[in-house]
Amino acid sequence: MARLYTKDHEWIDVAGSIATVGITDYAQAQLGDVVFVELPDAGRAVTKGGDAAVVESVKAASDVFSPVDGTVTEANQALADTPALVNEAPEGDGWFFKVELSGDADLADLMDAAAYKAYTDAL
Amino acid sequence: MSTTAPSEPTHAQEPLTTSLFDAHKALGARMVPFAGYLMPVQYEGILAEHLHTRSAAGLFDVSHMGQVVLAGSDHATVADALEALVPADIRDLKHGAQRYTQLLDTDGGILDDLMVHRPADPALDGTLMLVVNAANKAADIAHMKARLPEVVRLTLQDDRALLALQGPVAATVLARAGADVAAWPFMTAGPVTVAGISVHASRSGYTGEDGFELSVANDQAAALWTALLDDPDVKPIGLGARDSLRLEAGLCLHGHDIDTGTTPVEAGLAWSIQKRRRQEGGFPGHHVIAEQIANGPPRRRVGIRPEGRAPAREGVEILSHDGLPIGTVTSGGFGPTVNGPIAMGYVAAPHAAPGTRIGLMVRGKLMPAEVVALPFVPARFYRGT
User: Which residues, including other chains, have CB under 8 Å from residue B206's CB and lie 6 or more apart?
Assistant: First the structure.
C-alpha cells in the first residue's frame, strides 16, 4: 500500500496489520536540527490523532500524533543515539515507531503523496 | 505534529522590518515575527550557525533593539537622571566605557535590562547612549520620558541599524575591514570606520564570545552587512542561534529569565550594582535590593544540567531531591557547544548551590538533574593585556 500523509505532517506505511510511522521531510525542514526524540514504549496503546511521540529541535518541542488506533510494537532505537537521522532520512531510517492496527484502520482522511505535496505547497 | 514554541509578545499591527530585510531574504533566511519585527530565525541551521560563531565569527542583525540617546547639559546631569531609574553607577562611567544595568520598578523588579555607554569624545559629554530590548522599547521610552527631568532629552535613534559581529576572530575581521579595534577592552566603545563606513562600535555582545556591536545609519547598513559577509570567516547568524549562544553563556533574556517578578539580586546580577549605589541607594526598589544583598534573596537563578538527552524548556517545574516544588525553569533547550540539554531557572535559596541534585517534571515524568555554575561555556571576552 502506498505511503499516506496527515495534515499534521506524519507519514504512515501500512503493510498488513502493521503500520510504520514517521514525520515528513517537510516537517523536519520546518523543525530544523533535531536533538532529541521521545518514543513510545512497545505495548503502549495509541489513538488516531493522539500524542504518540515528541520531537525536539534546538528551538522547540513538537508532539507527534499517531495516524491510526493501535498498539506500539517497536520504536526506532537508532533515534535515541542519533536524533539527527530525523533530519537526514525522515522518510527512511528516521522512522519513529511501528503500530499493530486495532481492527480496520480508518485511513480515509489521509493524503497520498501528490495530495500532500499540494497541501504543503499551499502552506 | 504540532509545535509549542516559547511565547513571544504578540503585536496586532503588521510586523516591522529592519533595513536588512532584503539581505536576509536574499540569503534564504527563515523570517519569523519577533517583538513586532520580521526577523531571521535561521539561515543554514541553528546548530551550524551556533558552532560557527564559537569557532570563527557570526554576523547578527539586531536592529530591532532600541538605540536611545539621553542628552543634557553635562555628564553629571544626565548620569544623575538615569541613576534615578537604574542601580548602576553611571556618574562613575569613564569616557568610552559601557555598563550593563536594569530599569527597575519600585519593588526592585526588572522592567528591562540595557547597556549604557558614555561617549569617548569629551566634546560629547552630557550624552549617554542606551541599547534596550526590542520587545520593551516602547514601554521603556514611555517609562523614562515620564520620569526624566525636563533638562534631559530622550531620542530614539530609529534611523540607525545595529549589527553584532561575534566570535573569536571578530576583531581580526574588523582589522581586515580597516578598523583597528584589537586593543579595545571588553565593554568599551567609540567611533570607527569599517569598510569605509562610519560606525559606532562597542566591544560587547550576547554570546559569551569576544565581539562587537556596530551601530550604523540605516542607509549604510546593507553595505556594512555585505562587506562583513564578504570575509570568508563570517557567516550570517539568526535569532535561533543567538538564543542558544546566550543560554550557554548564562545570559538572561528579559521576559523569560528576568522580569518585574525578579530582582537583580535573585537573578545573580548584583555584580552590576556598584558599591556607591548599594550604599547610597537612590534607585527604585533600593530597600528590597539592599535587604536581599544583606541577608540573601529567597531564591536564586541557577544553571541546570538535565541528565540524559531530553531538553527541559521554559515553564518546567523544578523539584527538590525529596520531591517538593522549589522553582521553575525560565530558559531551556539544547546547548550545541555543550552537546546536551541545558537550562536556567529559579530555585529556593537552600537548593541553589552547584552540585545540588534536583528533579525536573518534563511531560509528567521526573527527570534527574543537577544545579551547576553558570556559564555553561566559559566567556572569552577580551579584557586587555
Answer: B62, B164, B166, B242, B245, B246, B249, B251
**Beta carbons of A69 and A44 less than 8 angstroms apart:** no
Q: Which of A56, A58, A81, A96 to mutate: most B Cβ within 10 Å?
A: A58
Domain parsing of chain B, residue ranges:
21-64+159-248, 298-385
Say yes or no: A29 contacts chain B, CB-CB below 8 A: no
Predicted pLDDT at B7: 52
Report which of A43, A101, A109 is spatially closest to residue A72, judged by C-alpha positions. A43
Pick the CATH number of B21-64+159-248 from 3.30.1360.120, 3.30.300.30, 3.40.50.9100, 3.30.420.10: 3.30.1360.120
Q: What is the pTM of this model?
A: 0.95
Q: Which domains does chain A have, with CATH numbers?
A: 4-106 (2.40.50.100)
Name the nearest CA neighbour of A50 among A104, A99, A118, A13.
Answer: A99
Distance from the first to the final alpha carbon of chain B: 53
Strand partners, B130: B68, B116
- In tens, the pLDDT along B277-327 reads 999 999 999 999 999 999 999 999 999 999 999 999 999 999 999 999 999
Judging contacts by C-beta atoms under 8 Å, the chain A residues touching residue B363 are 38, 54
Per-residue pLDDT band at B10 (split at 50, 70, 90):
low
ipTM: 0.89
What is the rounded CA–CA span in Å between residue B369 and residue B309?
A: 11
Instruction: Examine the pLDDT at B13 and tell me if it is beyond 90.
Output: no
Q: What CATH number does the domain located at B298-385 have?
A: 2.40.30.110
Sign of the CA dihedral running A113, A114, A116, A120: positive
Cell numbers standing for residue B180: 583597528
